[in-house]
From TrEMBL:
<feature type="domain" description="ArnR1-like winged helix-turn-helix">
    <location>
        <begin position="5"/>
        <end position="73"/>
    </location>
</feature>
<protein>
    <recommendedName>
        <fullName>ArnR1-like winged helix-turn-helix domain-containing protein</fullName>
    </recommendedName>
</protein>
<dbReference type="InterPro" id="IPR036388">
    <property type="entry name" value="WH-like_DNA-bd_sf"/>
</dbReference>
<dbReference type="Pfam" id="PF14947">
    <property type="entry name" value="HTH_45"/>
</dbReference>
<dbReference type="InterPro" id="IPR036390">
    <property type="entry name" value="WH_DNA-bd_sf"/>
</dbReference>
<dbReference type="InterPro" id="IPR038723">
    <property type="entry name" value="ArnR1-like_HTH"/>
</dbReference>
Length: 98
């Protein structure tokens, strides 16, 4: 089975989820399965876009970040449903059922 790379949206959503109630950088790195260099790039980008804010050593998801995360979850859910429907259709075609 091939390893599927995570999208930028998936990584962003994982960071925002981790920071929902406050998280330090180490917690974000481990929970989002990132290295520190990549985490720093994402955290800088998320702060510039006002999706996350920093208070002391902790990062918190902003209201804008929560909205982004909700939309990302909807898109991911719809994408998964489409993938399941596509597999089901393919299985029916391969099985000879029309």
């Amino acid at each position: 089975m091939a390893i599927k790379r995570r999208s930028r949206i998936d990584i962003t959503a994982e960071i925002l989820d981790t920071a929902m109630n406050g998280a330090n950088k180490t917690q974000i790195v481990y929970n989002a399965n990132l290295n520190f260099i990549t985490a720093n790039k994402y955290l800088d980008m998320l702060m510039k876009k006002n999706l996350i804010k920093k208070k002391g050593d902790l990062y918190f998801t902003t209201e804008k970040g929560k909205t982004f995360q909700e939309l990302a979850n909807v898109l991911k859910s719809e994408d998964n449903n489409r993938d399941i429907e596509g597999r089901s259709l393919k299985a029916r075609k391969e099985g000879g059922n029309t």
